[in-house]
Amino acid sequence: MEYYKKYYINNIEKIVGSIRKIESREIAYIDFDGIMYRHIALSKGDFGEWLISQLPRDLYHSSSYYLFPDRPIEDKVWRGGDLIFDIDLDHIPTYTPNFIWLCNKCNAVFKKEASICEQCNSKTRKIHVPRMNDLEIAKKETFRLLDAIYKIMALPVDETQIYFSGARGYHVHIYSDVLTTIDTRTRIEIKDFITLDGFDIANMHYLNRTYIERIIGDIQKQRKEIYQYFNNSDINLVLSLYRSMNKIKMFREKLQRNRRLRNKINNYVREIYGIHIDGVVTTDISRLIRAPYSIHGKTGLIKKSVEYDSLDGFMPYRDAALYNEEVLVKVLYLPNIIWGEKEYEEAYDVEMKLPLSLAIFLVNRGLAYDTRRV
Ligand SMILES: [Zn+2]
């Protein structure tokens, strides 16, 4: 709590300054008992005092602007909303989460599924543990997204803000006045264009031609994913499909006869060439989004803005972590991790001196307890 209070007192201006049109937003928060409060309206002037008195564990604002932000959703009167894209590790198919099983009694750690402790036969609990390079996967996907936003869709660079989400990904907020008033249907079209949801190779037009050509290129390059999605007979069928591409009737007939291949191609294109965002965040105009520069309650990290040119070198566990005075903490399991400027080796069941931000990160995950001042 003290950690939050100290941070918020010092950063009110930054938070208020980064919530555009704050008086038209719905403000919401979760307190330290885990209770959510919604439909709050605040002026720029009142926000700071409110923030310190409520001290939220998690702070949100609506992506939309309203005439009456404090009324129930059906009476708010919608006035537009930012276009937001959410990249989260959980939506990226190449990412597989890493877990440990921790004994409730003797604190033994198992890296393979073990519902019962092999040393004392007590029950274990399953805990998600980040790997060193997990967030690089999310960063790569963010670059793919930004590439599509800037180059293909020609959306405005100077009205875009990139944020580290505070946990497992990145948010891209677009504030352009041209886009804030687009309706849900148009937002769905933009989402479909980005994700390739609804892509069907059987609807032949220029976009689909491009993807057939890309698949052929992938076959020629022997890209490893090709063999995950297609067997040898599928590959022969794709090649023959490609040869019939200019005879549209024949092309369609081939796909109609072979729904299985059609589905395989569609899945391949969506998974390999689609950009993996959490689509609802882009399309749902009544959605809440974590407030910039607020603390993420589960990680203790900041939702921090990152300039495009700094994104490549951005390290969340260094650049979005807070006060790094050292504390004593009882660690159950510390994964190999770079935190701040320092690399920590794996550690098991030991009291350690760690930066406060890392101690909080571990405690919130159930990997440490009993934090004390040195
Ligand atoms: Zn045990």
List keywords for this structure.
374 residues; alpha+beta; DNA primase, PRIM domain; Ribosomal Protein L9, domain 1; 3 domains; four-stranded antiparallel β-sheet; 14 helices; globular; binds zinc ion
Structural class: alpha+beta
**How are the strands of the largest sheet arranged?**
2-1-3-12
Count every helix, treating DSSP H or I runs of 4 or more residues as helices: 14
Q: Which architecture of the largest domain would the CATH scheme give at its second level?
A: Alpha-Beta Complex
Describe this structure in words.
The chain is α+β, with helices and mostly antiparallel strands and 374 residues long. The protein has three domains: 2-85 and 136-194 and 280-312, DNA primase, PRIM domain (Alpha-Beta Complex), CATH 3.90.920; 197-273, no CATH class; 323-374, Ribosomal Protein L9, domain 1 (3-Layer(aba) Sandwich). It has 14 helices and 18 strands. The chain has helices at residues 2-18, 44-54, 134-152, 177-180, 184-195, 206-220, 224-229, 232-243, 248-257, 259-273, 279-283, 308-311, 316-319, 356-365, and strands spanning 27-30, 36-40, 58-62, 64-66, 78-81, 83-88, 99-103, 109-110, 124-128, 160-164, 169-174, 288-290, 304-306, 326-334, 337-339, 342-344, 347-355, 368-373. Strands 2-1-3-12 form a four-stranded antiparallel β-sheet, with no helix packed on it. A hairpin with a 5-residue loop joins strand 7 (99-103) and strand 8 (109-110). Helix 1 (2-18) runs antiparallel to helix 2 (44-54) and helix 6 crosses helix 8 (232-243). The protein is globular and about 75 Å long. The two termini are 18 Å apart. The mean pLDDT is 94. The structure holds zinc ion. The site of zinc ion (ZN) has 8 residues, from loops.
